[in-house]
């Protein structure tokens, strides 16, 4: 199990560093029902990662993700494809990043976040975790790595749980600060929000590129062996 956890730690860290979802939960915490809505967003985030990862574990089982405790060729091909996708997105985002970080703009839907219903907040957490252009490929890759590690199913589930927890640190940290500090958390969270807003595109571009190269390397290693 240890080697499986080691394989997904970098991927989990890549998911955790997600500026836009961090900005989203900080804005949600500033709403009148911040405690409830923030908890629902975090729950949606956790569920999105867990469900997507579990689907990959289920796919990897009957599809033979591991042969003699070695990843199957299709796992390497999947990582290659995901790596190419991430590198492409990274290069595209880097070209489109604002030259002046202070001019960075948030998506228009964030302006209406005060009016989101609890169900919509829960759905937003699901979408930003499981349907995000960065997080979805990384979670799929993590699920493929776990299912191809040649470990028993209970250990696979435990490894996925560790991945989900680490991948959620970025979203859970603002919620924890808010729950512990209450109104005193406002200035801290505002600083986090402003930094994430200014550097969202640049951070995402670098992460796309670096993690894409990692998946390319992992994929080549599996296919070539």
Structure in words:
This protein is an all-alpha fold. The protein has one domain (2-224). It is 76% helix and 2% strand. It is built from 9 helices and 2 strands, in the order αααββαααααα. The chain has helices at 2-16, 19-29, 34-60, 73-96, 118-130, 135-147, 153-167, 169-181, 185-224; strands at 66-67, 70-71. Strands 1-2 form a two-stranded antiparallel sheet. Strand 1 and strand 2 form a beta hairpin. Helix 3 packs across helix 6. The protein is globular and about 55 Å long. The two termini are 22 Å apart. The model has no long low-confidence stretch (mean pLDDT 85).
Mean pLDDT level: 85
| Radius of gyration of CA atoms, rounded to a whole number | 18 Å
Structural class: mainly alpha
Summed up, the helix count is: 9
What is the makeup of the main sheet? 2 strands, antiparallel
Low-confidence stretches: none
- Count of distinct strands: 2
Shape: globular
Instruction: Give the H and E element order.
Output: HHHEEHHHHHH
The proportion of residues forming helix, as a percent range, comes to over 70%
How many domains make up the 3D coordinates? 1
In order across it, which strands form the biggest sheet? 1-2
Distance between the termini: 22 Å
Hey, roughly how much beta strand do the residues contain? under 5%
């Amino acid at each position: 199990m240890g080697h499986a956890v080691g394989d997904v730690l970098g991927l989990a860290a890549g998911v955790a560093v997600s500026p836009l979802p961090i900005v989203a939960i900080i804005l949600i915490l500033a709403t009148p029902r911040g405690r409830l809505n923030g908890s629902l967003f975090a729950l949606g985030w956790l569920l999105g990662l867990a469900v997507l990862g579990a689907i990959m574990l289920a796919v990897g089982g009957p599809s033979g993700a591991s042969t003699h405790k070695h990843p199957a060729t299709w796992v390497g091909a999947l990582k290659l494809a995901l790596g190419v996708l991430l590198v492409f997105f990274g290069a595209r985002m880097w070209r489109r990043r604002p030259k002046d970080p202070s001019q960075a703009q948030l998506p228009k839907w964030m302006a209406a976040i005060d009016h989101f219903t609890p169900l919509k907040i829960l759905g937003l957490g699901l979408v930003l975790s499981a349907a995000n252009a960065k997080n979805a490929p990384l979670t799929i890759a993590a699920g493929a790595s776990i299912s191809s590690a040649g470990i028993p199913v209970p250990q696979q589930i435990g490894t996925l749980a560790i991945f989900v927890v680490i991948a959620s640190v970025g979203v859970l940290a603002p919620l924890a600060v808010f729950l512990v500090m209450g109104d005193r958390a406002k200035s801290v969270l505002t600083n986090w929000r402003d930094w994430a807003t200014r550097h969202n595109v640049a951070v995402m571009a670098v992460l796309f590129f670096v993690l894409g190269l990692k998946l390319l390397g992992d994929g080549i290693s599996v296919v070539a062996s």
